[in-house]
Amino acid sequence: SHEVDPWADLWQMQPGPSQSNGSVHPRAFAHERALEGKYWRGRLRKRGHCFFLLLEHWVRHVPAMVGVQPGETIDWKSLPGFPQLIKAFLLETKQRPVHVWPESMRSCVCALVQHNRQLTQVFARILLARISANHLRPTVAALKQLAQLMDVTADEPLPLTFDFELLLQPLRQTVRSQHFKVGACALIFVYNHVDKLGEPSRLEMLQWLHSRFAWFGLHWSRVVRSIFLHIVVMKVLHHDPQALSAVPRRHTPDIGLQ
């Protein structure tokens, strides 16, 4: 007899209508058999690729299921199952080295932040804790994932509770790394995302770089010097405040709560 994969039963088989003789349709029977089995529970319990895919699609599906209207937000804490799912996912992000995160895990992080902005600082803390001035692979992976989060949240201000110093302090330490590739990667991140920080965080970061102009401008690495001078020319000399005024990155006292 043909052996059927229980996981395929769960995700591909959809319940069909009953047959005219009253018996259960084979597709419905296969679907119910898969749900009653333990195979799919075992796969999800491993908190691997299948778990990440399930959580991502579930998070994207929730707004449609609860009927969220434009301008409304979801009380994620009150959703059945969400506290358990996010706790399991956060454990994986803390236990796994960031440079070996699978693509499904990276995509799930972006989906979670896109639909629940309060998680931005949570994931930022986890990623920034992996940055090291002396280790290239985890630093590059963490900055790459952090850059994706910055892109996901670029369409609106970050939450009022977001601590910008949490981001700026590790960047200052990393760009001064004696490992020129680590410093170059941090400078590239600054070049790509400093405008998204908004004032006064943007100005604080650029002033800090300016105070160390000689260190970066006379750096022995041509790569570090080149990136730093690109920041000077493009982000300072050719800076256009009007182009960035549409979406302020940091709430100021005269901006009401969103």
Write a structural description.
The longest helix has 18 residues, at 49-66. The chain is mostly helical and 258 residues long. The termini are far apart. The protein is 59% helix and 0% strand. 22% of the residues are buried. Helix 4 (49-66) packs parallel to helix 6, helix 9 packs parallel to helix 11 (201-210) and helix 10 runs parallel beside helix 13 (222-237).
How would you describe this structure in keywords?
258 residues; mainly alpha
Rounded Rg: 24 Å
Helix-strand makeup class:
mainly alpha
Mean pLDDT: 81
Structure annotation, total helices: 13
Percent strand: under 5%
Helix content: 55-70%
Short note summarizing the structure:
This protein is mainly alpha-helical and 258 residues long. The chain is built from 13 helices and no strands.
Summarize the helices and strands and which ones pair or pack.
Blueprint: H1 6-12, H2 26-36, H3 39-45, H4 49-66, H5 82-95, H6 103-115, H7 120-128, H8 136-152, H9 164-175, H10 180-193, H11 201-210, H12 213-217, H13 222-237
